[in-house]
Amino acid sequence: MKKMAFRTSLRDSFWFLPIVYGLCSIMTAGAVTLLDIWLVPMVSDSIPGFLLIGQSTAQQLYAALITAMLTMTTISFSTIMVMLTTYSSQFSPRALQDFMKSRITQHVLGVFTFGFIFVLINLWLLTETNQKDLVTPIITVIVTIISLCFFILFIHFSARWAQVNFLIGIIRNKTSKLIQENFAERMYGEHQHWDHSQIQQFKEKNSQTIYARRSGYVQQVNYDFLINWAAENNMVLEATFQVGDYVPKGMPAFYFWSSAVSDEEVVEHDTFLVIGDERTDLQDIGFSIEKLVEIAVKALSTSMNDPNTAINCIHRIGAVLSELAGNYRHVTYFSDNNGDLRLIMDQKDFRDYLYKSFYQIKHYGKHDISVVYNIVDSLYKVALVSNEEIQEETWDFTKYILESVDTKNLVSLDYQHLKDITEKFAHFCGKELNEENSII
Question: In this structure, which long-range contacts are made by residues 127-130, counting pairs with CB atoms below 8 Å and at least 24 apart in sequence?
């Protein structure tokens, strides 16, 4: 897991791809220079003249191309700084991860790094002779044209990412993919219930503890390693956290029961946990939803006053919850391939996802009937694709949302629209509303 965490951090870091491109540029420049020195003199007679450029001309060309590459790189970095400011002030600081980790952003800067270093090295390797036997300048022009294409792509890409609706769509699609990955079929057993007497039997024994060796957010759990390691040592593990939780250093991360392994012999928790300084969307569905919530809350602030963006976020959150409801399994017990219990780790309830999705939006948007109406409508659509248990939880949460609405002071049409969607929701869930028990 340490290697996985290192690879993930290295891959997502902002400087990794530019360094890779820079190293490739150095090797390419060396190879092209050797081509000029050894191969071109032998076949120069068969090469069209317009492809061969004298060194004095090449030197002037390289100087101009370096200036062009620096200009494009400077504009690109300035654009990135503008995007960072925009995201922090208008959208959500958490959404910066999505832009900075975008492969297009990193590849564009990598191409610029490649082009600048390639031109600079070629200028440095020029000799003082004026022999007309160089194809390197033509290759350099081609590299510069490719860099220009990437520059145009980056401007277009940045303009799209600056649009809040595009960002909301990106976060929603990534969350959908994350849900599919989290609830995909596993090689180990997943169970909602387990024999209570069997659990009590080993819990009566003295438990041992694995402590967190650093503070941070639980970003990822390697379930395969945990279960296989527990099976090899005939042990049962009980986690004290959920993915996305903050764990301080020294906090008990796991309790375990085993006669074969002592707490001094356990592997470091970094082997099966990724703990970092910030939350990520590696396995944390709640964090992805939180990004949409923050964009909605920012849009509802008096400084922005953009309820339509908040409503867009509500619709996307509703779509995420609908997909989550269709895949959701409240798994607490994990078994090995032989069916023996190996890991106890409580998962978030669906009502927790409901609460985290809308409680802040409800607080800041309760005075805007359009916001409340769309929350209820989104919850109704979640119920449409859910089983009875989730429908009940969704209906109860809807009542919580409507408790904050001052229905007595609503004007007639606002009241009627809210009443219509609530009655439709109640009818679908098999609830009967009348003047005495109506929630609106």
Answer: 127/55, 128/55, 129/55, 130/54, 130/55, 130/56
The three-class DSSP label of residue 236 is strand
pLDDT at 50 over 50: no
Q: How far is CA 150 from CA 14, 100, 254, in A?
A: 17, 17, 48
For residue 390, give Cα distances in angstroms to 185, 320, 352, 380, 429: 21, 14, 12, 11, 10
Of 308, 301, 283, 292, the C-alpha closest to 356 is: 292
Give counts: helices (H), strands (E), the chain. 16, 9
Residue 54 domain flag: yes
Q: Which domain range does residue 379 map to?
A: 366-440
Mean pLDDT of the chain, nearest integer: 80
Task: Specify the DSSP class assigned to residue 301.
Answer: S
How far apart are the C-alpha atoms of 40 and 43, rounded to whole Å? 5
Edge-to-edge strands of the sheet including 341-344? 189-191, 333-335, 341-344, 236-239, 252-257, 208-211
Q: Are residues 9 and 153 in the same domain?
A: yes
Report the pLDDT value the prediction gives residue 55, as an integer from 0 to 100: 64
Structure tokens at 391: 């429908």
Q: Residue 41: is its pLDDT beyond 80? A: no
Same structural domain for residues 190 and 329? Answer: yes
User: Which spans in 188-237 are helix H?
Assistant: 196-203, 223-232
pTM over 0.70: yes
Around 109, how many Cα atoms within 13 Å sit in the side-chain half-sphere? Answer: 22
Biggest CA pair distance of the chain: 98
Residue 328 sits in the same domain as residue 439 = no
pLDDT tens column, 264-282 = 556 555 567 888 888 887 8
DSSP class of residue 191? E
